[in-house]
Each structure stands twice: as structure tokens, then as C-alpha cells.
Amino acid sequence: MGRIKFVGPRPSCSIVGCEVEASARGWCRSHYYRWKTYGDPSSPVRRHANEGKECSVPACLRDARARGYCSMHWQRWRAHGDPLAGKVRRTYGVGAQCEVDGCGQPISARGLCNRHFLRYSKHGDPLGGARSPRVRKALDHEDGTRTCPNCGERQSIEAFNLDKLATGGRRAICKACRRAAEKRRWEAEPGRLRSLARKNYAKSIDVRRAKDKERYERDKDKRIALATESVHRRRVRMTMEPSDRGITVAALREKFGDICPYCGQPMSFEYVRGRQYEPRKATIEHIIPLSGGGGHTWANSMLCCWQCNLRKNRRTREEWVISMRDKR
């Protein structure tokens, strides 16, 4: 005999007072399962004997589940015959730290932090396996300096690399120590690291080019300033003249202002795309030209507009003033 299918709305449960639609044998699902479990669809639901009771083990506040015990103590009674047998759970106070000397991390298990517990699980010793690294924390001082935990020297904050995820936005180890570590690493395995770098670059060459382009557009002014300074310093090295670092248009603008000292007109500091000629564009002017033996120093550098710089050419300031006076 096949299963009976109802056509249209189903009748309600045949139990008096129950208006839920019938599911099986003329009863709703709830009364059907009572009949299936207890043999009578009108039988009241039997509550658990331990419902509302706490575990009978002293000082245990968990709800009782079986034989008057909570789930944990019942499992211990089932395995050992005693609800208090087996492993004893250790409790630690708030802020408890790892038992390994010098490690201030919070406890994870067995009185150890997560790192030392994993070593204990794998090697049987919380200090086994890999050598435990030193905890490198940035030691900042009120005067804006920082102590490198590697070399122990107290240096300016500028001597530490930028890192958004590090303390104060700077790495804990100074630039000199990082360069030395990288040098030792490359000297130890030059072939493998060079090959690995080439493979990684070849895999993501398109992504790298897109990032380089984005970074160039973002830092265009800074890159142009660095390129200009590099050209000047290279020219000075060829003549063995002195040179200073940090001489840029922005730095000289703070020192000399926005007015050209030769023509008295305000200079433009906006970026000019390509090789378009902008007469009022601010440029670095050397009082004694580099070709005439002058150095790229703060004392020999100033600002002037592009037009005056081109007109002055390789002459000194006095020679140019005399030539302009003669033309008049």
C-alpha cells in the first residue's frame, strides 16, 4: 500500500485541544513522537531526572547531566570509576605569565605560553627544538631616541626603519644592524637567495610594475628631488669639490623664500610634466657654478627662476650682473 497523500489543506491533530495540522497517524508531529516513545500520544513529556540540579561534586557549579554529575565528572567516573580521578584541571590567576624565565607572554596550557607549550608538546621540553628567540622590544626615551636591542646603542628615531605594524611606526632594530644581518645572510647563501629573488620577481612582474608605477606617481616630487641631488653630487665628485646632502628645492624654499633674487618675481613650485619650459619654475642655483669649481654646498646654493638660471649660465653672479648692465 502506497503512502497516502493529502490533497488540499491537511486536517488538524486528532488530540482534543491540539490545532496543529496532522503529520502521521492523524496526530501532529509532537503527539506522534510521544506515541512512538512512550506508547501513548497523550502522555506528558517526561523531564530529565537531573534537570535543574547542579553537579554533586563539591565546588562544581555545572549542571548535572547523568548520575548527578556534570558531563566532565561523569566522563571521569565512567573512565576511572571516580568522578575526581584522572586529570586535574589547573587554574591560573588573571594576568598569569609563562613559567619560562624571561618570557612575559600569557599562559596558554601547562603553565606555558602557546609558543613554549608547542615546543613542549613536540620535543618534551619548552626550550627544545628551535632556539628561543630574544624578546625584542623597542625601548623609547623621552628625548625622542630609541635603544636598539641588538647592538644596545641609543640612537635617533630616524635610525630605525618605518613599519606601520611596529611600536611607534618604527622597527625595533636599527638600520645598521638590519643591513649587517642581511649582508651576512646573502654572504652565506648568495646563489640560492639570488635565484629565489629572480623567480619571485618573474612570477609577479606585472603586479610589481603596476605597484612601481603607482609608487612613482605618489612620490614623484620626492623622486625628482633625489634625482636632481644625485646629478649635482655626481658632477661635484668629478671635480673633487665638497658637497652636502639634503639640498633640495623644498629645503632651499624654507631658507630663501618664494622670490627670485635676480628678477624679483615670485617663483612657481608646481610640477611641470615632461620638458615643458616654465620661466618662473624654481630651480637650484649655484653661486659659483659647478663647472667653475664651485661645490654643491649650502653656502653655494640658492633658488632662482628657470629663466634667470639659463641666462646666468656658467658665469658668476658678478659677471652676469656686469653683462646685463652692459646690455642695457
The biggest sheet amounts to: 3 strands, antiparallel
CATH-derived topology of the domain at 220-327: DNA Binding (I), subunit A
Please give the number of β-strands: 7
Give the CATH class of the domain at 220-327.
Mainly Alpha
Q: How would you describe the shape? A: elongated
User: Strand fraction band?
Assistant: 5-15%
Quote the average pLDDT: 82
- What is the gyration radius calculated from CA atoms? 41 Å
Class based on secondary structure composition and strand pairing? mainly alpha
Instruction: Give the topology string: H per helix, E per strand.
Output: HHHEEEEEHHHHHEEHH
Count of DSSP helices?
10
- Give the N-terminus to C-terminus distance in angstroms: 123 Å
Poorly predicted runs are none
Q: Helicity range of the residues? A: 25-40%
